[in-house]
Amino acid sequence: MTARVVEGWSPLGGRPAASDDEVFELLAAAVFQARFRPAVVRARWPCIRQAFADFDLAVVAGWPDERLEELMHAPGMIRNRKKILATLRNARDLRMRGTRFGSVSAYLRSFGDEDAVVQDVDTWAHYIGAPSIRWFVRAFEGTGRG
C-alpha cells in the first residue's frame, strides 16, 4: 500500500530547506494547507510570512500562545485559530528538537527513512496529520512538488 501524501505548494519552490527557518516555514505551510486549497494559502503566504516574522524560528519560538489574538488580526492572515496556534506551538517544539540535535535538519535526518520521520513528527506536531507530515518531509528534502 502506498503512503498517502497531500498535494501542496512549497514556499521554497521545490528546493530543499537550507536552514532551520526554512524548515519551520515548510512545516507552517503544511499546517496551513491541511484541508485548504494550496492556491488559497499560496496567495496569502506573503502576509502570513510577514505576520510570523518571516518564519524566524528563534523569534517565533519565543512567542507565547497569547500572541494568537494579534496574529488573528494580521492583514491577510488566514483566520483559523487552530492553525495559528499550531504554528506557534510547532515553532517551540521544532526549536527544542533543533537545539537537542544541533539543527532542525539534523533532527529530521537522524531517522534515516521517511516513515520513521513521519511517525516521530506525528507524535508532537500540532494540527497536522500523517499525509501532510509526509508532504512536509518531502518538501524539506526537495523531493515534493514546488
Series of secondary-structure elements, N-terminal to C-terminal: HHHHHHHH
Number of domains: 1
- What is the number of beta strands? 0
User: Main beta sheet: strand number and arrangement?
Assistant: none
Estimate the global geometry from the Cα principal axes: globular
What count of helical segments does DSSP give?
A: 8
CATH topology description: Endonuclease III, domain 1
Distance between the termini: 25 Å
CATH architecture: Orthogonal Bundle
- CATH class descriptor: Mainly Alpha
Structural class by helix and strand composition: mainly alpha
The value of Rg in angstroms is: 14 Å
Unreliable runs, pLDDT <50, ≥5 residues?
none
Percent strand equals: under 5%
What's the CATH superfamily, by name? Answer: Hypothetical protein, domain 2
Assembly state of the chains shown: single chain
Average pLDDT, rounded to a whole number, is 94
Helical content (DSSP H or I, runs of 4+): 55-70%
Structure commentary:
- The protein has 146 residues and is mostly helical.
- The protein has a single domain (20-141), classed as Orthogonal Bundle (Endonuclease III, domain 1).
- The chain has helices at residues 20-33, 38-51, 57-61, 68-72, 81-101, 104-109, 114-124, 130-141.
- The two termini are 25 Å apart.
Give the secondary structure arrangement, pairings included.
Blueprint: H1 20-33, H2 38-51, H3 57-61, H4 68-72, H5 81-101, H6 104-109, H7 114-124, H8 130-141
